[in-house]
Amino acid sequence: MLIKRPRGWEIPEALVTPEEVFLNRRAFMAASGSIAAGAILGGGALVSRSLDEAEAATRHPTADLYPARRNPKYKVERPITPESVNATYNNFYEFGPHKQISSAAQALKTHPWAIRIDGLVEKPMTVDAAKLIRRMPLEERLYRHRCVEAWSMTVPWTGFPLSELVKLARPLSSARYIRLETFLDPQTARGQRASWYPWPYVEGLTIHEAMNELAFMVTGAYGKPLHKQFGAPIRLHLPWKYGFKSIKSIVRISFTKRRPKSFWETVQGSEYGFWANVNPKVPHPRWSQATERVLGTNERIPTRIYNGYGPWVAHLYKNLKGEKLFM
Ligand SMILES: Nc1nc2c(c(=O)[nH]1)N[C@H]1C(S)=C(S)[C@@H](COP(=O)(O)O)O[C@H]1N2
Ligand SMILES: [Mo]
User: Fold this and answer.
1) Which ligand is in closest contact with the Cα of 157?
2) Phi-psi region for residue 45, left (φ > 0), alpha (ψ -120 to 50) or beta?
3) What pTM was computed for the model?
4) What is the pLDDT of residue 20?
5) Distance of CA 201 to the CA centre of its chain
6) Residues forming a β-bridge with 203
């Protein structure tokens, strides 16, 4: 991949090197007969400062939770998209209206990270993302992802069921929808300086959809904490819907009575609706949705209804005949 970042499980080189340098230096000084208390103390201070810096640079507050156990229930029949492909081709309009945002996204500070849970709940609260992630049951799932732009990928996500978060939030019986919001920080995210977009990014779903076992809060990918370009520290994935529903870098989760209006619905409601369930037979106003380009390959494959997850979710839409369920 283009971004070189240390992996959680690797012994960071920086932690090893200063000690070697120190030992060599001491050996050198011993050999030359010039050991003095001051020199040793000075060397020691140098080492511990280097260790602190190196640790601060490499430690991630949830790195020890990965890789999480894979849940074999969520299988895919196609190869996992290589991480290098997926991590350098991202939709994250906060950092620009194109796919090459991965280096710009590294500017995002993802901890501490406050998430507000409010609206129609017993008790509104603010939780730190890392603490929330620690108290949730993490597992790995292989999921297909289908973008409305007719490309797709297959990702080993780590996370927890959105239903667990709903339980934690304790919504009132009057709550029918969940509205999710991304951070707002035009200083860090240059894309948010484009004033013609209705920032911050907002998405929504029904509580019934949120309680479906497939609705997944994603905290990691490829066996590590989530890369920033994937929407760290926490994003949603609804694998039966077009990708824009899967909101990244969430800072607010509100329970509402009224259906929330999403970012893309506000931008272009005739092309991007509330439901946005995948259906190869319902074209986008400007292109066909019959097939999809598989990222990292030259293949085009047929798109499946509900992105292949119909057995899990089709029942959610049985009594919604008047709605535009597939755009
Ligand atoms: N906040 C925010 N969330 C977002 C987007 C975005 O631009 N901003 N893009 C969406 C779209 S269109 C897609 S396809 C997926 C892309 O996720 P990926 O980069 O992990 O593949 O994120 C979705 N979530
Ligand atoms: Mo997308």
Assistant:
1) 1
2) alpha
3) 0.84
4) 34
5) 14
6) 180
CA distance 239 to 278: 9
Ligand nearest to the Cα of 88, by number? 1
Q: Which CATH architecture has domain 64-317?
A: Alpha-Beta Complex (3.90)
Q: How far is CA 145 from the centre of its chain?
A: 13
pLDDT tens-place string over residues 31-80: 444 444 333 343 444 444 455 555 555 679 999 999 999 999 999 999 99
d(CA 271, CA 144): 22
Reference 226, options 201, 246, 248; nearest CA is 248
Ramachandran region, residue 33 (left: φ > 0; alpha: ψ -120 to 50; beta: rest):
left
Q: Best of 85, 88, 91, 264 to mutate for ligand 1, by most ligand atoms within 8 A of CB?
A: 91
Q: Parse the chain into domains and list their residue ranges.
A: 1-59, 64-317
Q: pLDDT for 191-213, tens place per residue? A: 999 999 999 999 999 999 999 99
Which amino acid, 45? A
Residue 309, pLDDT above cutoff 90: yes
